[in-house]
Amino acid sequence: MPHRQQGAPKGCVTVRVGAEGEEQRRFAVPLGHLSHPLFAALLEEAEREYGFRHQGAIAIPCRVDRFVHVEQLIDRDLGDHRHLVDLDNCGVTLNAGHSNSHIQLPRFVGCFRD
C-alpha cells in the first residue's frame, strides 16, 4: 500500500531534516520550539547552508538522529506537552522520554554535522 503524505498537525510546522548523503525526513515541530535557542542554532546552520532566501519547507542540514535529540532537549527544557511528530513514519510522536544526557548548549551551536 502506498505511503500517504500527511501535513503537520495544528500548532506545528513541517521541517525537512537530513545531512548530506542522508535521506531527508519530514517532522512536525511544535511552534513553541521555534523560539528556543537550540532551534535558533539549527536555523542559523540552515541559513549558512541554504541561504536566507531558501524557498519551500524549512530544511535543517543535520543528521536525523541529532535533530531528534536536540528536539528532545528542547521539549524537556520547555516542559512542553506537544512533541515532535515523524511525518514520514506514520505520524509517530517522539516524546522526550527520560534521557540522562547532560549536553550543554555550546556543543550544539554552530555546525550540527560531524
What's the topology here?
Elements: E1 12-17, E2 25-30, H1 37-50, E3 58-60, H2 64-78, E4 84-86, E5 92-94, H3 105-108
Parallel strand pairs: 1-3
Antiparallel strand pairs: 1-2, 2-4, 4-5
Strand order of the largest sheet: 3-1-2-4-5
Query: What shape does the CA trace take?
Result: globular
Give the total of beta strands: 5
Quickly count the helices. Answer: 3
Task: Tell me the domain tally.
Answer: 1
Quick check: average pLDDT? 77
Unreliable stretches (pLDDT < 50, length at least 5) are 96-114
Largest sheet: 5 strands, mixed
SS-based class: alpha+beta
Name the helicity range.
Answer: 25-40%
Reading the helices and strands in chain order gives EEHEHEEH
Rounded to an integer in angstroms, the radius of gyration calculated over CA atoms is 14 Å
Range of strand content: 15-25%
Q: Give the end-to-end Cα distance, rounded to a whole number of Å.
A: 36 Å
Features:
5 strands, 114 residues, five-stranded mixed β-sheet, alpha+beta, 18% strand
